[in-house]
Write a structure and sequence with these properties.
Layout (H helix, E strand, L loop, with lengths): L1 E5 L5 H4 E5 L9 E10 L2 H8 L16 E8 L10 E4 L11 E5 L4 E2 L6 H4 L2 H14 L7 E4 L5 H12 L3 E6 L2 H9 L4 E4 L5 H8 L5 E6 L3 H8 L2 E9 L12 H7 L2 E4 L6 H4 L1 H14 L8 E5 L4 H9 L6 E4 L7
Parallel strand pairs: 8-9, 8-11, 9-10, 11-12, 12-13, 14-15
Antiparallel strand pairs: 1-2, 3-4, 3-6, 3-15, 4-5, 5-7
Amino acid sequence: MRQLQAASLGAPRDVLAVVDADDPPLAPGEARLACHAVGLNFLDVTMCRGGYPGQPSPPFTPGVEVVGQVVETGPGAPVAVGQIVLACPAMPRGALGERVVIDAELTIPAPSGEDPVLLAALPVTYQTAWFALRRAHLATDETVLVHAGAGGLGVAATQLAGAWGARVIATAGGERKTSVCLAQGAVAAIDYQADDFVRAVAELTEGRGADVVIDPVGGDVFARSLDCLAFEGRIVSVGAAGGRPQAVEPLALTAANVTVIGLSWGSAYPYRRTAEVRAAYRELFGMLGCQVRPVIDRVIGLAEVPGALADLEARRTVGKIVVQPGGAAP
């Protein structure tokens, strides 16, 4: 089969190549999927560069969310050949290939008739946004500040927070991206390239601040976001696309009466909170096409992935990039 492999660590353009590989054998409880649609994420870039928690050693195949059809099962696998499922493969056997082996116990049956491209946008970004907002105990009529609001996670957080009755302020870089934020339901979109988002949030909230901040950026954005929080505000750190955040002084949090929450959905929730993850999927499927409307930047083939990850790293994308490793699903 054809699959992408990183033979070493570095920039995706430098280390990823399409290769011919043998299908690995199936262990008990495993299933082989024909990959119909694979979502790209910033963590694929991080993995190629060697900075992902639990980093696999080369060679490995990235791609952590897939919609595919079961084509073979190992002994005791709780899925049937022909079934369409969503899955999050375990490294180093990622989904950016024509086929992938997964733990069948962790698959989610896909709703009938839905576009695999849209479904492939749900696992990482929408599940992360879902649990970030739930762990922040978001309440109706609260204000949420969503950083990187035009990215896949930002779009998901904006849509879900709006569906749950919150008021969303988003940040993004440039007029094109702030327009995307507003189209997803944000009441205001701050162009961080032109405006100081701390000052803008204070003005938009009449000095009160945001009750919840969703931060996939990290770096100095995380530290400055602490200044955006309302009394008893909560900031959820879900990534560090902009660099490692600086250390936080616990007594500063105490004095400000604010809470910092860390969340890494893919590294723990599918395995440790399986029932809650399945319940979230059921609700997301019911919202799909209404409150949940994934924004797809483009649909590409395997050979285009290195360039697409370079665009993702350089923040040139909007929403999700989805890969069809074997072409469009039948």
